[in-house]
Amino acid sequence: MKLLLQNGRVLDPTTGELVHKDILIEGQTIAKIGTDLNAADPETEVIDLSGKFISAGLIDMHVHLREPGFEQKETIETGTRAAARGGFTTVACMPNTRPVIDSAELVKEVIAKAEQAGYARVLPYGAITVREAGQELTDMAAMKEAGIIGVTDDGVGVQSSKMMKEAMRKAHSLGLPVVAHCEDDSLAKGGCVHDGQFAARFRLKGIPNEAEAVHVGRDILLAEDIGVHYHVCHISAAQSVRLVREAKARGQKVTAEVTPHHLLLCDEDIPEPNAMWKMNPPLRSSRDREALIEGLKDGTIDIIATDHAPHTLEEKAAGMERAPFGIVGLETAFPLLYTHLVLRGVLTLAELVDKMTRKPAEIFGLPYGVLAEGKPADLTVIDLEEERTIDPDTFLSKGRNTPFAGWRVKGWPVLTIMNGKITWNQADTALTFGE
Ligand code: DOR
Ligand code: ZN
Ligand code: ZN
User: Fold this and answer.
1) Any domain includes 368
2) Which residue puts its alpha carbon closest to atom 4 of ligand 1?
3) Are residues 385 and 350 in the same domain?
4) I need a surface site. Which of 56, 306, 343, 383 has the fewest CB within 10 A?
5) Dist. CA 346–CA 269, nearest whole Å
6) What pLDDT is attached to residue 433?
7) Non-local CB neighbours of 190 within 8 Å, separated by 6+ positions
């Protein structure tokens, strides 16, 4: 199977400018990137992309696909369809399912289901502790054998320093990164929003910055001698950014991710106590948000990841204090970031794309994220001019929980190709691939 993408524009790696290119895909590989490529072979499918932007397929290192156990919120199929629509070709999924993904058998099940669905490459994380209960380490070696790319108890922090230290030793011996949801329960328990202006105004119990930052600091200390790759999930507090910056300056192998919502929103943007704005970590102060942008720009924060966390509308209707934490992100990440960071001059297009493609692949050692001849044919085609209103009713995800409904944004993915196969084509809404 050959696919020729004509008249698209790609980022020139040396200048960061957009240049016209044609791309020929043969099977699962990018065969050629050039100018005036023609379909020599009549079997070749030709797609005219005149003027559209072609990036390497987007990578999201933090999503919740909810299978097994929470299929009412999302399934691997609906979650990966949402990923494809959002321009993502690779997603790494979190183990806080029911049962928790804490064994090789469950890892294999997730991989098999994802392959069957076929809409995105799914890389599973395994849990650090059995049932994410914080008491006993999982069989990381067996899970690695089954295909995990790292270990995490995302959803909860690992409360015991001793447990975390042992986990780091074990993960390091296996060459696995430790991916941490940083949250000290003794500081965070009972809070539902950031301990700041909004919490005070509505008399809600707050989650302070230190609930995150003490874990970041503790873990950096624990990891220092062990030498393990330590990755901070959804960094949100200015103090955490400072700690990661200092660790990097000392040469420690510490990386961090930030979500689109923490980059674009702060607690003062929350209009009223409404669980569409509830996630963990919470939206912090505008000063924290500025520190995240600065950290992203200076390389302290390596990548952008969505923390796509679908919940049902019934669950979210329980209100700010009782609803579960989390918002969806896969179908809105790129246009939101393009509109609010690139078009406003905060990041260049090349910087944004780098943090969603090459960089995540680099820090997790994945063979994706680069648009080059001989590489896997993972591509995302984006219409940088197309402007649309975010409408949760159109989501392919089962989750509709987003605070961004109604936002008008530019830069929508229109065609996604994973391993040489079209996984999302806006022009063809009756897409039946994978069925
Ligand atoms: O907002 C969040 N949602 N934060 C988490 O840590 C967990 C996630 C979820 O699983 O819903
Ligand atoms: Zn988390
Ligand atoms: Zn998460």
Assistant:
1) no
2) 280
3) no
4) 343
5) 19
6) 43
7) 205
325 is annotated as contributing to ligand binding: yes
187 and 333, same structural domain? yes
Q: By residue range, what is the domain housing residue 152?
A: 57-363
Round to whole Å and give the CA distance between 316 and 294. Answer: 32
Do 23 and 79 belong to one domain?
no
Residue 156 Cα: closest atom of ligand 1: 6
> What sign for the dihedral angle of Cα 405, 406, 409, 415?
positive
Kindly list the averaged pLDDT for each block of 10 residues, start to end, along the chain of length 435: 96 93 98 92 93 98 98 98 98 98 98 95 98 98 98 98 98 99 97 98 98 99 98 99 98 99 98 98 98 98 99 98 98 98 98 98 98 98 98 98 98 98 88 42
For the question of residue 354 being annotated catalytic, the response is: no
| CB atoms closer than 10 angstroms to residue 73 | 24
326 CA distance to ligand 1 middle (Å): 5
Cα dihedral 158, 260, 12, 35 in deg (nearest 10):
110
174 is in an annotated binding site: no
The two tokens of residue 119 are 């809409």
Ligand 1 atom having least distance to the Cα of 278: 1
Closest ligand to 233 CA? 2
- pLDDT at site 371: 97
Ligand 3 ion: Cβ-proximal residues, 5 Å cutoff: 154, 307
Q: Whose CA is nearest to atom 3 of ligand 1?
A: 326
Q: What is the CA radius of gyration of the chain?
A: 21
The pLDDT score that the predictor gives to residue 165 is 98
pLDDT of res. 62 = 99
